[in-house]
Specification:
The strands form three sheets. A seven-stranded mixed β-sheet has the order 11-10-9-12-13-14-15. Helix 8 links the parallel strand 7 and strand 8 (198-201). It has two domains: 2-201, Rossmann fold, CATH 3.40.50.720; 202-464, Rossmann fold (3-Layer(aba) Sandwich). The protein has helices at 10-21, 33-40, 51-60, 70-76, 97-109, 126-141, 161-166, 178-188, 203-234, 238-246, 267-280, 286-298, 301-310, 337-347, 360-366, 369-373, 407-413, 428-433, and strands at 2-6, 25-29, 64-67, 79-82, 114-118, 147-151, 171-174, 198-201, 318-322, 351-355, 377-379, 392-395, 418-421, 437-440, 445-446. The relative contact order is 0.08. It is α/β, with parallel strands linked by helices. Helices cover 42% and strands 14% of the residues. Helix 1 (10-21) packs across helix 3 (51-60), helix 5 runs parallel beside helix 6 and helix 11 packs antiparallel against helix 12. The protein binds nicotinamide-adenine-dinucleotide and uridine-5'-diphosphate-glucose. Residues 320-428 form the UDP-glucose/GDP-mannose dehydrogenase C-terminal domain. Belongs to the UDP-glucose/GDP-mannose dehydrogenase family. It holds the Pfam family UDPG_MGDP_dh_C. One of its GO terms (biological process) is polysaccharide biosynthetic process.
Length: 464
């Protein structure tokens, strides 16, 4: 098939490249000329495992091309995917300006009947709004074309985007048009060989499914983070609780890892946008509000622990920080817990030496320049260089190389052996045996003397 993808961010680029890999002829359009220039050289503007190789292969095979001109793409294709950003507006609702801009342009440039597929995450009713916008502009030009708008939300996770796209749990196709349904079924047929992955429904149902999925996952995480806090107060290790409840098939192990909060470009904004949808209809989204409030509080947990340990004034202290990206496998810093933590520590005068396997360049470009100018934040050359002379290590993102660190080397490099683990990656007993004080999320504080390894809250005195 001959298709056009509009927007070459995480979703558009992965979608375009994967459809090309399946033998389709794909044109990717973006308004960002620099991005398009980079992509034409088969260089990916984002870090996503496996993407650059697949990109190069499909450009080479002439199945994948990049342009800034939607008008030109309209001359060649009649199947369009909208994959532009839908960032939060000031009140938290989804800002549809990019989606509607694309709809206006399609109305201006389309020359034949077309199916327009919305892959961006958009509020219920947007497909209808896109259709009306396109038709309004077609009418203005006196063009009599039939346009179908389909909702086909995307469920890929950053860091595993190719795998998620190529082997989807499900493909949601929201349309009222039998013709559009047939086109999409044909396009997705290679992804649907052994199991029925395609779920057909109405456009509004599909739009809601995307928000409900993200809100459910965010709810699981916030629920677990709340349980973790309570565990800490009660002298319970939440990691045992996690395993205990995860083994119940009705609950499952996915998305119940407690931590220093969820980040990324999706959960925070989509929970807020769904809340706004409820509010606009006079409903009070009690659970969604609580999910959001817990996550905001959770992003303060590590700083709270540090202040509880050292006091409000952190000017004499330096910390090693492992992990800047909002999760492993990506260089994306959107709503990253690392940023919230850095804001809190730097405001109290701390110095931080940070290391991330891929997000350092993004951090230098996106974090406030004053953090670097005042030498509050330094980017270390490798993970152990971040530990030289520091008073504590703070783990924020659980990249694989951080999971099994060399404790002896850490002990030699650090001024004090203290670890704050924002992702519950380490064995408290092993760290304590190596002379480290250890504090994680919902596990209590562990000190060096094995006899004193009592989760905080379980006795009258808090071990320090
Ligand atoms: N990032 C994810 O993991 C993910 C997963 C599923 C769904 N989503 C949703 O998909 C959508 C896109 O997310 P993203 O993370 O890929 O966004 P992004 O910000 O990474 O990329 C959006 C791209 O669209 C381009 N763009 C903006 N206006 C344009 C226009 N008029 N014409 C052509 N290009 C235009 C931008 O230049 C940018 O390159 C959002 O609605 C998001 O919620 C994202
Ligand atoms: O048990 C868990 C699982 C995740 N997280 C955090 O949650 C955030 C989001 O993680 P993840 O869902 O893996 O990454 P995303 O790329 O944001 O993917 C989510 O958001 C996308 C955009 O809508 C959807 O397409 C995906 O299905 C959905 O998982 C990250 O900060 C994780 O650290 C936890 O704290 N605990």
């Amino acid at each position: 098939m001959n298709l056009t993808i509009i927007g070459t961010g995480y979703v558009g680029l992965v979608t375009g490249t994967c459809f090309a890999e399946m033998g389709n002829q794909v044109t990717c359009v973006d308004v960002d000329a620099q991005k398009v220039a980079l992509l034409r050289q088969a260089r990916s503007p984002i870090f996503e495992p496996g993407l650059e190789e697949m990109l190069a292969r499909n450009i080479e095979a002439k199945r994948l091309r990049f342009t800034t001109s939607l008008k030109e793409a309209c001359q060649q294709s009649d199947l369009f995917f909208i994959a532009v950003g839908t960032p939060p507006d000031q009140d938290g609702s989804a800002d549809l300006q990019h989606v509607l801009q694309v709809a206006r342009q399609l109305g201006e440039f389309l020359e034949r009947d077309a199916v327009v597929v919305d892959k961006s995450t958009v509020p219920v009713g947007t497909a209808q709004m896109v259709k009306e916008t396109i038709e309004h502009h077609l009418e203005h030009r006196g063009a009599d074309l039939t346009i179908e708008v389909v909702s086909n939300p995307e469920f890929l996770k950053e860091g595993a985007a190719i795998q998620d796209f190529m082997k989807p749990n499900r493909v949601i196709i929201g349309t009222e048009s039998p013709g559009a349904r047939e086109r999409l079924a044909e396009l997705y047929a290679p992804f649907n060989r052994n199991h029925q992955r395609l779920l057909f429904m109405g456009t509004r149902d599909a739009e809601m499914t995307k928000y409900a999925a993200n809100a459910m996952l965010a709810t699981k995480i916030s629920f677990m983070n709340e349980i973790a806090h309570l565990c800490e107060e009660l002298g319970v290790d939440v990691e045992h609780v996690r395993q205990g409840i995860g083994s119940d098939e009705r609950i499952g192990y996915h998305f119940i890892y407690p931590g220093c909060g969820y980040g990324g470009s999706c959960f925070p904004k989509d929970v807020r946008a769904l809340s706004q949808m409820a509010r606009q209809r006079g409903l009070e989204p009690k659970i969604l509000d609580a999910v959001e409030a817990r996550n905001r509080a959770q992003k303060e947990r590590l700083a709270q622990k540090i202040v509880a340990r050292y006091g409000e004034d952190l000017r004499q202290l330096s910390f090693g920080l492992w992990g800047l990206a909002f999760k492993p496998g990506t260089d994306d810093l959107r709503e990253a817990p690392s940023r919230a933590l850095l804001e809190q520590l730097i405001a109290r005068g701390a110095r931080i030496q940070a290391y991330d396997p891929v997000a350092m360049e993004a951090a230098r470009a996106q974090f406030p320049p004053s953090w670097f100018d005042d030498q509050h934040l330094m980017l270390a050359e490798h993970q152990y260089a971040a530990l030289e002379g520091v008073d504590a290590l703070i783990l924020v993102t659980e990249w694989k190389p951080f999971r099994h660190p060399d404790l002896a080397a850490m002990g030699r490099l650090m001024r004090h052996r203290v670890v704050f683990d924002g992702r519950n990656q380490y064995d408290p007993h092993q760290l304590a045996a190596a002379g480290f004080e250890y504090d994680a999320i919902g596990r209590g504080t562990y000190v060096t003397d094995a006899a004193l390894m009592i989760p905080a809250g379980s006795g009258p005195e808090q071990p320090r």
